[in-house]
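About this split. The held-out portion is used to measure sequence recovery: a designer receives only the structure tokens and must propose an amino acid at every position. Recovery is the fraction of positions where the proposal matches the reference. Here is one held-out target exactly as it appears in the evaluation file.
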């Protein structure tokens, strides 16, 4: 379950736009100079940057305390709502012409009635004016009320907002424009805007960091609790997680590998694999646990360059022999398989696209109605995966978005910006979102500076958790990666990027945000009890 990324890029962007391409990556891989990991708004800002909802300025800063203009905020709102301007129903404003950069976003919001009250009697919107808190609440409340049924909306507009106003009892409630109150208080009710000891402060200008917080709350509200399918990879060392089987929808049993024996000959290997994709003793306990938990079972097959995978794919006779062996095991009633998972890695050359696509079609036919899952790496350097074809043939496609490690730059394995970028690229390349599963790996990247040299390690989750129990060791938020960040001194200076429970939550949200089919866990034995609590909440 590996995919290597050989080049890292660090880029700066323009205000409210995606970053420019540098080398392979488009995502922001350097923190804003004025938003450290200790800032209260850091997670909000870097989450939005990861999904390209906003960015900073050419000077490398985000300018968190600067006031946000009306047009800047409306762009964020329309982007978050994933809507657009209908050119067939043009809007006219006296101070927002069609040539203004913000016209499509302002037009989209106006078409939907979200900002009608922000247009003055002369037909002007005043796009460059700083947006005030009551205007933010009004626009967000309008958007959210649109999602209610007609009866629910009517009830709120008639009396619901009055109960909310009474329960909140803001000291400055009289300062809120009377016509906006139903919408303002709905935004408050839904947790989009919070008051302070001074009240709601309706006339206060909204800062850029406050805008990021508001929009991030909206994105999380919109993603909600959309159901996700959870796949666990029971492989390598996962016996300790056997009791977690009921938390899964599907389990991929990583007990087989490609055994290519040379021209015309290949079979399904279940022992002797150096990567530990071997069937363990006592495997019956695992399949029985899956069956009693009503979890679907996949036969997983692993192969990489060490298994001569590219040579195998070019050998039609060997493929035929392999699929025959696969079909026999797949149909063996002692396992009770419901599907097969093909994890073939290291396909670098574009010349392998057609061969791999043909092989998957052969596997699909051999599966005789059982489901086909295919794992794929991010698209950057692996050209042997015909994603449109894979997206059509496979029932599920698992994106292995967790090995971006680039040691010279201390780029960790699964930074949220690159995970998000990989999801976008995979969907754009032709894999339907409704078939795509976001792969999550519980991996830690540790860099040790000692005596003028830097070494690398990847400790087990259990070792990291034990280290965190020691005095003076704590995890903070790494930015812009949004992983756990651990530093301590012990025979050298240690820096760790850790996929903790909070960072898993962010990736689960990301899967919901992009409308994916589900998430997968590589591998089950690495996940902690705290992680499993988060996973339990997914279903």
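Reference sequence for scoring:
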């Amino acid at each position: 379950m590996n995919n290597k990324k050989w080049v890292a890029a660090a880029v700066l962007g323009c205000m409210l736009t995606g970053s420019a391409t540098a080398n392979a990556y488009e995502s922001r891989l350097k923190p804003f100079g004025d938003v450290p990991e200790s800032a209260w708004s850091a997670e909000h800002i870097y989450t939005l940057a990861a999904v390209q909802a906003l960015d900073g300025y050419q000077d490398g800063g985000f300018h968190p305390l600067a006031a946000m203009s009306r047009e800047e905020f409306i762009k964020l709102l329309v982007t978050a709502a994933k809507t657009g301007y209908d050119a067939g129903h043009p809007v006219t404003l006296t101070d927002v012409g069609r040539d203004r950069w913000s016209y499509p976003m302002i037009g989209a919001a106006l078409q939907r009635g979200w900002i009608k009250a922000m247009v003055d009697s002369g037909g002007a919107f005043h796009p460059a004016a700083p947006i005030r808190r009551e205007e933010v609440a009004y626009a967000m409340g309008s958007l959210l009320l649109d999602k209610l049924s007609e009866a629910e909306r009517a009830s709120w507009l008639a009396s619901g907002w009055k109960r909310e106003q009474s329960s909140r009892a803001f000291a400055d409630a009289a300062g809120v424009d009377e016509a906006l109150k139903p919408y303002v208080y709905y935004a408050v009710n839904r947790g989009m805007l919070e008051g302070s000891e001074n009240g709601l402060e309706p006339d206060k200008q909204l800062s850029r960091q406050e805008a990021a917080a508001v929009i991030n709350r909206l994105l999380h509200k919109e993603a909600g609790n959309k159901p996700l399918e959870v796949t666990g990879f029971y492989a390598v060392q996962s016996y300790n997680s056997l009791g977690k089987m009921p938390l899964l929808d599907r389990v991929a049993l990583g007990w087989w590998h490609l055994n290519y024996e040379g021209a015309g000959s290949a079979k399904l290997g279940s022992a002797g694999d150096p990567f530990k994709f071997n069937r363990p003793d006592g495997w019956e306990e695992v399949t029985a646990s899956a069956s009693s938990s009503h979890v679907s079972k996949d036969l997983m097959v692993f192969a990489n360059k060490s298994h001569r995978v590219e040579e195998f794919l070019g050998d039609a006779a060997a493929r035929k022999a392999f699929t025959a062996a696969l079909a026999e095991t797949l149909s063996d009633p002692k396992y009770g398989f419901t599907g097969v998972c093909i994890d073939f890695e290291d396909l670098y050359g574009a010349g392998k696209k057609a061969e791999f696509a043909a092989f998957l079609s052969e596997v699909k036919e051999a599966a005789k109605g059982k489901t086909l899952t295919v794992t794929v790496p991010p698209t950057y350097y692996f050209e042997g995966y015909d994603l449109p074809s894979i997206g059509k043939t496979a029932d599920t496609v698992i994106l292995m978005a967790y090995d971006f490690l680039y040691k010279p730059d201390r780029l960790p394995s699964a930074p949220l910006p690159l995970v998000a970028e990989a999801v976008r690229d995979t969907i754009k390349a032709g894999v339907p979102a409704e078939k795509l599963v976001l792969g999550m790996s519980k991996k830690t990247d540790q860099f040790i500076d000692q005596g003028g040299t830097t070494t690398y390690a990847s400790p087990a989750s259990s070792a990291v958790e034990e280290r965190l129990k020691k005095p003076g060791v704590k995890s903070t938020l790494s930015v812009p990666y949004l992983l756990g960040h651990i530093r301590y001194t012990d025979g050298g200076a240690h820096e760790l990027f850790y996929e903790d429970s909070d960072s898993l939550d962010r990736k689960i949200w990301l899967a919901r945000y992009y409308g994916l089919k589900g998430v997968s866990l590589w591998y089950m034995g690495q996940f902690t009890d705290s992680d499993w609590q988060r996973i339990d909440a997914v279903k």
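Annotator remark: The first strand starts at residue 229 and ends at 234.
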